[in-house]
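### Sample
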Amino acid sequence: MINFFANYFSNTNKNDSKNKNKCKQIYTHKCDTTTKKEDYQIAICQDGKHAVTFDRANLRIRLLDNTDHRPFKKVDIPQQIPDHQNNSNSDEIKETIAYFKIDDHDLSIDRFYSNDFVPPLFNDDSNDPSSVDNDDDYKFRWSLDISNMQEQEGVNTILVAISRIDVDEDMKKTDNREDMKHDYKKGFGIQKYNKSNKPPSNNRRNNELKHEIIEIGKKRKGTAIYRLTLNSENDVVVSYHCNEVSGICNFIEDDSYAFSKSENGVDQFKSLKRFLILNFQGIYNFGFNDNFDFSNLTEKFDYPKSIRREFNNWHSDDCMKRLLSCIYRKYLLVTQYKNDVQSLEVFNLTNMELETTAKRVENKDKFVKQYNYDTFSVSRLQLCFTRGIKYIRLFYMENGLQVASRNFDEIEKIHSLEFVDSDEKLLIIGRGQEEGLKFVIWDLYDTGKVESTTLPRINNLNDCLARTSGNILQVDDEGNVRSVLKRIENELKQKNKKKAEKLKTITHIEKFKGTTLNGDPDGSHTIYFDKNVHSIFKQIVIEREPWVLGDYERNSYCLYQNKQGTRTETLQLIIGRSTVQIWHRVQDDSENKDDLPNKGEPFLEYIWTNRIPVNQERDKTRLRIEKFECGPSDGSHDKLNDFHLKVYWYERKDNEENIRKKGYAKKKEQDIINEEDNEIDEIEQKIIEINEDKEMDEIKKERRRQEIINDSVKIKRREKLIKRKDITEKFHAIRHACKALEHLNKRYKSKFLADNYNRVHKYEEIVTYVKHIIWRFVKHKPKDFMLLDVRYNFMKSLILGDSDHLIKYTLFGDEREQKEFEIRHIPRNTLWPGEKFLRDDDLDLDRFDRKDNRLEDNEEIKPGNNMELAIYHCKGRELKDTIIVAYLLEYYSKNATDCAGWMSAVSTAIPLLFKYNYDDYARKLFNKECFADQNHFSANDPNEIIPIEYQERRNNNIKFRAFRPIVKLKSDKYEWYYRILNLFNLSFKHKIYKYFEDFDNDLGKSPLALRVVPLPGFTISNITKKKVVDYDFKKIFFNILWIILVPRSYKISRNEWNKLSPFSRMILYENNDNIYDNPATEAVINFRWQEARNFFLFLFLRFFIFAICFVLISWAYLNHSIIVNEKFLFALIIIFYYLAFYQLVTELLQFHYRGPKKYFGEIFNSFDIISIALSVTVMTIMLKNFHFSDGFGRVEETDTGLIAGISFSIFFLWIELVDSISPINIKFVLLRNPENIRIKETSYSGLAADTISNTTFNIKLETVFDPKSKEDNPFSFFPTAIEAAYFWIGGNLNQRDEFDFWAVDLITLIATQTKGRQTLLRHRANHIADYEALYHIHFRNHEPEPKHIYYFGQSKTLEDWYNNRKNDQGAIYKGFEEKSTFTKRYFREKSYDKASIWVYD
């Protein structure tokens, strides 16, 4: 049963509370009249399963089930087609869920229709006066949206929203909106309905009264939400309505839930996040409860400043069209243009936060004479953008880098974009030169080709076309809904329809056994060829899997043989144990071999590998041929006939699935293999019996075969169909070639070649051919390679294939070529949905040759991107064999000066550089230009980015100031505690700083340079975050008690450091101070220290109180007096023991987290333990003489040993307290009264001549140094000693040349070695890393760590840093390539390229 809940919002009155429990009966009609010309609008839900149409003239709303729903299918997951998907050729969407009509006055439900209701078409001859449009019809516009189906306790709910927009009030700039700031939160009305099949009584009179009300009343704006509940027996309908807000409706669903929860590999969208209304004033947010039966306007969000300026200045008369072009599903696109660069900022309306920023650089020599509204679409991973004129760009959402671009000359104006076929293709809708709409499908990853067709023009395209998640529907003038994709498919089928001859099995087959190199018969090699086509066939290759030890089964097919005179050209397909290869040979005995392609020897054209793990490859898991079919040539290729080769093999089921089984881990590998082989034999025998059963038809046989395969316990069967297009289509062949490099190298590293010269030579020959195939594609199709790399991660295969020279060419091109280089690779951390970055044996390349001397990591290291994989893959090798790491670091850092997104992979991989001791690479990386010259990539002015509190200050003496960029849309929601927290955190603090900066300061503001730390997500950890909670007074009070009384524990253990942020992991692994002499590193520390310092300040305060308590109690004991009140003394004792317990627990937690080596590696940790333990011991002994009546008044004689204990305790406490200012104390004590320190007397002597009298004088100059003057010796006066100590920390002590005292030289030497500022930063960084792992206590919902950290500093500081490192700005890999142990190799064209079946323009 379907229930209808109309949720509409109207002004409250006293009667609302009395009437809200009353239900209104609504009759279900089976027929009705159409009084106005139909005017339809359509909307589709985010997951594409349902749609809604709205006849704006007759106010009829119809909900439909999308019978042509196309879900997103993830890779490597078995897919099942939903039952409701349209498998026919019909493009009509007819299945109605609900049908009803709303009232024109208040948008309430007027009547229901039966689901099979078909409204009559409008009759132009009608004399009904209501059919005439009035002025209100032009004043108002409509907006429509529908939510995904929501599931709550077995009840499915759909929400439909409709808004009647007053254009003058809500889509134009008005001057009276400031006085109505909070009016939108006023006015709610409630009404309940019951659906009834009984006609209402006195219906005529009710209609008359209703018309009277309508005539008296006047149409007004408003928004209504209608709720539909499926499979429920409750007929009650609750409704709300709001007359204060109207605008563009948008239901926002949470995609993160859909990606984590899927059925049969299909995303499930069932989490409604919010409902929004967007108009000129801002974004209004509606909140729902868990049952979606109540809604409330909770807050209003402001637009980004740039779009607000655009609305105010350019679209003040009507912004609706511009606003619609900015919205796609849950995304809001903001564009800005500055200095020939257009910035694209994509905001996610789920969390009202900036998700990515991309840049589009325009050619300065070309000016666009036309302007259309921007059009964009967002897939799971990519952003597609166009200005509406022919040219389309694809950007990667994770980092904002451009992936691809293409010019479509067949389209003059682009209206719409949509990713279809699980984001594998892009549909472009636009206007071509011919009449009608042009539909172009760009096959992004399979062929790269474009197909197009033309359909009749659609009037009012924005309203009559709905698109989302790869689903596109259209409603026509009569209300019929059709699937646009189905229409396009049908048109393309008709357009490309040809009578393709059916493939047939080879009938005139000739089968013979091959021969070995010695000419002996080879019983393991079977060769097939069609005798009608080839009278005789001679094999050109014998075996091409040199890693297979011993004999193994092989099958070959003749794909092509052409003999013209003495010249013979042959293509042979050979199927081995784990590969399918095609070899090509051109022979001519009458020609010189040097003139023949590849000197007349066979060369590799194509290779496919099944990528079975090395330890699973054996005879039982070999490739088996299920079917081979071929057909005559259709003319599409001059050499290859069409063929289908279907092979299958067996692999072990996923390790995780098997490990969970009881006793599996205890079994030996050989026992597991034996069990798997037995199961394979059983499956093969059963399938043979089924195939030989003549009484069973083919359908039953196939079903039975699948049941046997699915019921397998230990193994799984995998299949591959190879067609001619896999060889001739370069997109397919290059994918297989890249994966083959990885497959071959794993077998080489596993020592299957047994270091045999012949086998190694054959292996290297195959690898050389494969690399050449890839190189040709990279050279001739760089843009296609980059696009395919984004989809299939070619770079990973090149890394695992140890193809260092091919990687260098891909990243940098040929250094001998003097031409503009094209980008062929971008970094990425986010994977294609359903894709796994690592396979079972990707990290096992060194498990055979380094098994005995491998070191196990204390933490689980699992690379998540190519940079991390390269570092992990090359760990422990000779430096020359790690050059891949240098190539990638240089490539990413070199391009990062333009966009920080280039360092997205480096950011997470930096910790591994230090963990695996790539010190030289790390040092060169942190000297790269991008760390000081990474300009902010927003088109906003710096004044809009730098916080106002920083702009108000002079910033004369700063080095760097880091801050969080404003990425969230501003809300008018304000909690009561915000004012208090902001007062202490920001306003009060900055006012104090500003006061002291302005005091007696005549300098103006310094020129500043705004920069971005070029390490995205560098401070974001993987530690589980707290859920959003409501901080009321009670929770805040208990949090205060928790901070005061309970020691902080750690959220992670020592073996879970991989959950920390890359920054903290880097700090834990690094072993030098070079990284701290870097503007970006200092900015990160500056940013993180703002929060961490408060925690450590409270720790210091506790220790200070602890020390004061001990000193006061010891003083009372030593004086044998009752000067300190005994009650106060007792309170001090209680506080002392509590603080001792608190600090001791804190130290034990640190010891457990850091481990003994790292904990005692810092000497002051030892002082911490000694100071606490010794003080508690001494205090416990003193308390034996304590009495509640007089304290220590009864002590007659003080214990000498106890006095010594008190002295040492105070000494250690003093060391702890003055640790931070000890340099000042040491120097001040040593040099404040240097009467007994000898002064170095410096004198200069020479001759001076008087040119007038021609007289010569002997001159002697001596320096006068007063050690008691603060001008000569600043350490004689404490205030100047503080300033001088700062320079001494950096090793800059001019006074060392004046004092002849060994202590001064020794202390100065120590200071020089400590590199004061770097030491300070390192000390802070270690505290930050420690703080990150602790449980945090907050008083409001804590903002997550930003993806990008901004900072500003004085321009001269950054310029000086860069100039000091100019000599070390060369390529990271240069110094290592120049070593004699490294061999440079260059790729070049081969003699057989022109004869290859791969042809490039």
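The CA atoms of residues 257 and 605 lie 45 Å apart. This sample (Ion transport domain-containing protein) is used throughout the tutorial notebook.
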